[in-house]
Amino acid sequence: MxxxxxxxxxxxxxxxxxxxxxxxxxxxxxxxxxxxxxxxLPRELLSYANVLSFSQHWxxxxxxFVIIFLFLWHSAHRIFHTLHDIGxxxxxxxxLVCYGAATTGTLVAGCAxxxxxx
Amino acid sequence: xxxxxxxITMEVLxxxxxxxxxxxxxxFLVPFTDDMSVLQGLQYIKDELEGSLSxxxxxxxxxxxxxxxxxxxxxxxxxxxxxxxxxxxTLRVEALAHFPIERDLVIVMDDFMAKLESIRPYIIADTxxxxxxxEYLQTPAQLDLYEQFSSCINCLLCYAACPQYGLNSKFIxxxxxxxxxxxxxxxxxxxxxxxxxxxxxxxxxxxxTAVGYCSQVCPKKVDPAxxxxxxxxxxxxDYFLRFVTxxxxxx
Lengths: 118, 251
Ligand code: SF4
Ligand code: FES
Description:
The structure holds two protein chains of two kinds.
Chain A: H1 6-37, H2 48-56, H3 58-85, H4 92-115
Chain B: E1 6-14, E2 24-32, H1 38-49, E3 68-71, E4 74-77, E5 91-94, E6 101-103, E7 106-107, H2 110-118, H3 140-147, H4 157-161, H5 163-167, H6 174-184, H7 192-200, H8 213-217, H9 224-241
Helix pairs in contact in B: 6-7, 6-9
């Protein structure tokens, strides 16, 4: 019997699910509605200067990285399993596309955050 | 209770491999009273209308687990479902989903039997106990741990409910996992090291996508989904910690 390597993906999926459930909706509200529309929050909150300095701070960098990385892995896993559920057993190909996209996204986010400087 | 006799239409899936190319539905008009189960309806058909109809049953009281079938599309025990609950509509009975049909409502259980055997569903003691040593003692708290999972009657309703088993029958499945859990939790047992490789395997718990329908249809409140999910966590822990924990530590 071959041991499954699913725990890696499952844990990332679980962590991503937890984070997105806890702060996903609030993030959408702040960045998508409240700040841009100037409701409850000032518009300048998401100004270029503010966001730049947020992503230059080590804590901001960590936060952005964790959010992007876990959300990506959560959705990759979800999409992979949903494909299987709707009868598309693309197997290794689908795995490569889903998790490959998550890996690429993670790397791009990491590099971008590093390039922004401190 | 209404004791007067009424008539219900039962639509039963038939398949006789020696003469039918594909399964088909046959309708029967069955007289019934309020206290009659679907199983009794089938027995009426067999005794009075169509002697060749095949189905499994034994206890008539939700204990033996042999009368599992799809009733109006839902996996149920025929002896545990009343005809009156469907009346005046037509009641549809089919063989359990996700299994090959042997004949009419009788499914081929070989796949599950092999799985059941593979999980070693019996107490494995470290050192065999001599009869002279008397019985094993167990506290109520120790019994509580596994009792729920020991109620499984192997009826396979959970397999018929599980979409993942339907897609890939290599998956060990909810019922067998409930039994793995039942024996691993038993204070008299030390066989979990023999059972866990199956849980960790590609055929194991990670095929489950946490749908939970298995627990919903289980007639004995075993909650196999819970057993599967607890073992996902156990398996993930073991996956990452197996190199740092000494062999034999923990169950
Ligand atoms: S877990 Fe429940 S539904 Fe599944 S085989 Fe056992 S008794 Fe039947
Ligand atoms: S006949 Fe035994 S469970 Fe239904």
